[in-house]
Amino acid sequence: MSDLFSHLDDLQEKASFYLERTKVIQGNIANADTPFYRPVDIKFEKVFYQQVKLKRTHPKHLDPFPYKETRIQKYVINNFVGYDQNRVNVEEELAKLAESSIMYKTLLESMKKEMAKLKYAITGR
Predict the structure, then answer these.
(1) Distant-in-sequence, close-in-space partners of 105: CB < 8 Å, separation ≥ 6
(2) What angle do CA 38, 42, 46 make, to 5 degrees?
(3) Angle between helices 90-123 and 6-30 (to 10 degrees)
(4) What distance in Å separates the CA atoms of residue 110 and residue 104, rounded to the nearest whole number?
(5) pLDDT of 67 above 60
(6) How many domains in the chain?
């Protein structure tokens, strides 16, 4: 889209990530009693790229961000082992679920406010 709507695209992209992460975490919680289950989580590299401002100061330096497109990666968590070799820590998963839910709702509210601003600019009311 144009520069006028680029911030809406960024908000939508981040909201999609948190929605997908919420689904993955819910799957981890649902499998908390499954023997030998290993929980998974996802990373969103573009969020990291936007938060950390790095740049090349010399043409021979390595590119700090070799991937310019958005990449969502799943990875297995190997931190906690239960009596049945299940690695799901329900308390930790619930905390991540709350964080993802709050971030998703916050991003949706931001998108609503941005759309209200555009509507106001168009209608003048």
Answers:
(1) none
(2) 165
(3) 160
(4) 10
(5) no
(6) 1
The span from the CA of 17 to the CA of 77, in Å, is: 18
Structural domain that includes position 18? 3-123
Pinpoint the alpha helices (H) of 1-125: 6-30, 45-51, 90-123
pLDDT tens digits, 1-55:
456 677 888 888 889 889 999 999 999 999 988 888 888 888 776 555 555 556 6
Exposure string of 35-73, with b = 16+ CB inside 10 Å and e = fewer, is: eebebebbebebbebeeeeeeeeeeeeeeeeeeeeeeee
Whether the Cβ atoms of residue 42 and residue 75 lie closer than 8 Å to each other: yes
